[in-house]
Each structure stands twice: as structure tokens, then as C-alpha cells.
Amino acid sequence: ARLREERNASAHLGTPCSRALPEAKNCRVTKSAVITPARGSTCSPLRALSTATPTRSPSRPPSMFAPHCAIVLGGFDGTTDHGTTELLDFATMEFATGPCMGTGRSGCAVALLDERRILVIGGYDGSCSLNTTEVLDPVAMSFSPGPLMGTRRNACAAARLDSRRLLVLGGSDDSVELDSTEVLDTMELAFSLGPRMGTRRNACSAAMLDEHRLLVLGGSDGSSDLDSTELLDVASMTFSPGPRMGTRRNFCVAVVLGEQRLLILGGSNGSTSLDSTEVLDLRALAFSPGPRLRTWRSGCAAVVLGAGDLLVLGGFDGSKHLDATEVLDATLSAVASTHGPRMTTRRSGCAAICF
């Protein structure tokens, strides 16, 4: 049930990454290096949403604005590492085809740079792990090449530390699980070496607990799946041991719910995909069991909807890659989740973000 690791183990650092991907056949690169769809493409450069893009002040962080839609990026359907994306309009709760990325990416990470830029980071293109990134303009709905990382990273995690810095953590470079991190200067768009974690973590997850602390969770160190976590002090940029989860989890996803809770969903324990969740009390820094998902999901993604409910997307259930989604009530009650809208493509190892 381990998502994609058999393929990753056979890949090598330095393997040429020039293989033509199925999605790339339907997209062309213009002289300005912005990805636009070719004639007959199923990729859409622009989706007219039913709600207007809110006016945003550049002095305020993007997280202070209510999102009105989400984008799901890349992933693996059992055959192809996708460069396609899907847009979810919160007003209609329907998926529509989004713009194509320049490269197929499963196991990529995504983070919001500011109100006009979303960064897609690393991943696996079907041949090797990637050190490339792409920048999405959410208004024009077009991708352009982003800065190169110093290391190829598949199944990495990423989180924005503050208004000037974004941190990329762990992953695999096709030869070894990584304990290294990289810091992106979001103004200069240049990566530099970050602090080392205490443990190698491939397929980990990460989330900001508050403006002072980042938590990185689970993953695999190459010999076992992890239930450990690490806390990063943003001021000193040093890691220390964090609270231990109740279950070993790689390819899980972590989402902050309000100021009090962090929810960890799904993943794999090394032998099976998981339908369990855990809730971290951000004050006590202690985990407790959360509600069960409707489906086992390793390599899923999740976004917080406008009403505060949580939408869980895709993943791998142990036998098939999923196009199904489900909605968890914001109260995290024991009541079973409800079915969400179905994506147009099966996607495990996908990424998703609201804007």
C-alpha cells in the first residue's frame, strides 16, 4: 500500500528529466514561458468563477482573506503523473478543468507566496524527482517557471514561515530520504540552505501552528514509517522533538482548524492505507483520535472550505487511486463525513490550496 515507493526506489539522482509527458502534448510554452493550452487541449487557461476575486491589500497576509475557490494540482492515477489541475468553485461545489502545469508532478508541495502567486514545488514526473518549481498566477490562471531548488525533492512538504520566507522540508531525491530543508526568499525568489531536521523524512507533512512555530509530522526515514514530529522555532530556525502521534503515518496531510486544533488525516503505516485521523490540541501539544474518514486515503490532499468544513481529496485506498472527495464537519464530530464532489481525474499524491 505504500504510495509510489517501489517506483521511487528504482529511480536515480541525475536521471534525465526530459521525457515528454502525456499532459505536455496538449500544452505549449509561449515566448514568455507562460503555459497556455494548445488547440484541442482539455486544459483551460482561465476559469470564470461565480464569485468575484476579492480586493486584497498588499500589506496584509493572504491568510486573512476568505478563499472563494481551490485548485488541485498533479497527482498519480496509476498510469500517469499528471500536469493537469482542477478548480473547485466554493459557490457551486463543482470541479472544472484548470490550467496545465509545465511538468507532470505527483508528490509535489504547494504554498501561497502572496495574493498573486502560488508556488508548486518539486514532485516526481514519472522519470525522476524534481528540483523545479512553477508559479501560478491565480488571476490569469497561467503557470510560469519558478526558482530551482538545490536538491531534487519528491514527497516533500512546504509551509510559509512569514512574509519573506517559505520553507521546503524533506522528501526523497530518488536515492535517499532527506533531512535537509531549503528556505525560499519570497521576494528574491531564491533558495538557500535551511536547518536540518533531526530525522530523515520522506512523505512528511508540515503546518504552521502559529507565527512562532512550525510542526513537521511523520513520513518515512527509509527503514520505518514515523509517528514522531518536530517543532521548528521560527526565530532561531532550530528543530526540537515534538509530540508523538498515536499512529505511524507517511503520506498523511495536516490542516490547521482555527487557533486550537491541527487535524492529521490518513496516510499509510507501511502496510496499509489509513482512514483514521488525529487531532492535535495546539495548547497542550497532545494528540487524540479524530473522526474516521469514509475511505482509506494515503497521499490525499485537504482544504478548508469557506464555511470552515474540511474537504479531503483523492489519495490511494490500497487498491485504487481515488477521484472521490469527502467533507468533514468543522466540529470534527463522530458523525460520518459526507460525500463531496467527484474530481474529473483520479489523483493520489496530489496537492491542493485555497485562494
Automatic annotation (TrEMBL):
Which SUPFAM superfamilies does the entry mention?
Galactose oxidase, central domain, Kelch motif
Extract the signal peptide range. none
Asked if the record carries the keyword Glycoprotein, the reply is: no
Quick check: keyword Heme in the entry?
no
Q: Name one GO biological process term.
A: protein ubiquitination
- Sorted UniProt keywords: Kelch repeat, Repeat
Coiled coil regions, renumbered to chain: none
Domain of life where this protein originates: Eukaryota
What is the protein's given name? Uncharacterized protein
Species name:
Alexandrium catenella (Red tide dinoflagellate)
